[in-house]
């Protein structure tokens, strides 16, 4: 039985940025692109070039390797041509492969929000699509408020679909913008649209205001659409968007969908799902949702009693999919009964090969779990995992030892009488038996420590010349004055590789220094590996 292709369109970098309390930096966007490419989605919508400095910089060059790099924006304004609309031109002149334009499919919104007419708006859709195609872009149209618009005026809503397709749009996306449409309504209305448009040109974009975004996406797929838009962990304004982390394994693992449809997600990529979901939360300084389907820490957890007893005889009794298929693990009572396979996969990423019965694997697994209980999280700090693994396995070179360090922050007046803050750090390290001391000033204790630590590394100094710290995130794990602090440090070097290290301590400076130390150690491990390859 031949399967139909479903296309997955991620809008995390645009819809996710509308989440209360979320704001992506340029470095965040670049790192999240990497997670999405690891997952294997077909399209990545990066934001709105021209809307703000971050998005404009982001679209100065192509950011994806495989996924279709997509820019988002508005159709042309009334009263001007698309070729003379700065917003449209910003998209067509960006480095994006595709452009996704939002249009109003509800006549009430056309009059209320745009102060225009339906005929004028239809003309704008056509002109915008033709202009994008002429610029060499794949054109998509997001029909905002489509389902409410169809209920109010079906002829106009369908005219929007037909106009976009006639102009050459590759995809016309039906948006449940306020998230209030029921799955039964989705099926019925999509069925009506399919009478004038082929399903392989239609997409669905549900919001989660009734908690049914994933259900609505599946209903649309069952009805005939072949593109689904959503976000990592369901991020988005108000109640969020379709959660791709829930939708994807449902499409790939559940027989009803897996037998009828294929996606671009491989089994190996699906096994990275839990890691990607948690690494994304770590980047946002958010605690992962423990009860999230498929990837939550409690998704395959069972307390003692009859359920645990049954699980020990047949794990499938209370598990709808094998936890390892999505990179998660089984938890029975208070002990973890799985994890070796995940650990071996993680070790393989760093070219470390162990047999499953190697006793050192048990020791590493126990160490990881003990440290995670103290606040460490290696899903978002893979470089620290590589350092920890080599330390536990006894293969970590002793590059340098830290004798002691000190950071001092002083508030004072300068010669002009201005109040300023000066930070100074002193670091003493021992390299190959030689004691080295470095002093540096920075714009904060972490920056000063970073500069001092890298100022003189003796025989290793040249090997870290291209190392730089690009991001720094702090999260308080427990409240109160004795709170445990988790610090994530992102670094990069001249090769373009980025890596994240972690530090945990009640003292934010200690946590920061631990993450900085491991970043340098990881860089030296990289240069060791490069030298071995050259030899």
TrEMBL record:
PROSITE patterns: AIPM_HOMOCIT_SYNTH_1, AIPM_HOMOCIT_SYNTH_2, PYR_CT
Pathway as given in its UniProt record: Amino-acid biosynthesis; L-isoleucine biosynthesis; 2-oxobutanoate from pyruvate: step 1/3
Domain of life, per lineage: Bacteria
Entry keyword Manganese: no
Any one GO molecular-function label of the UniProt entry: (R)-citramalate synthase activity
Acyltransferase as UniProt keyword: yes
Pfam families: HCS_D2 (PF22617), HMGL-like (PF00682), LeuA_dimer (PF08502)
GO biological process: isoleucine biosynthetic process; L-leucine biosynthetic process
Domain spans labelled Pyruvate carboxyltransferase: 6-271
Known catalytic reactions: pyruvate + acetyl-CoA + H2O = (3R)-citramalate + CoA + H(+)
Enzyme Commission (EC) number: 2.3.3.21
Similarity-based family: Belongs to the alpha-IPM synthase/homocitrate synthase family.
NCBIfam families tied to this protein: citramal_synth
Annotated protein name in UniProt: Citramalate synthase
Organism whose genome encodes this protein: Devosia equisanguinis
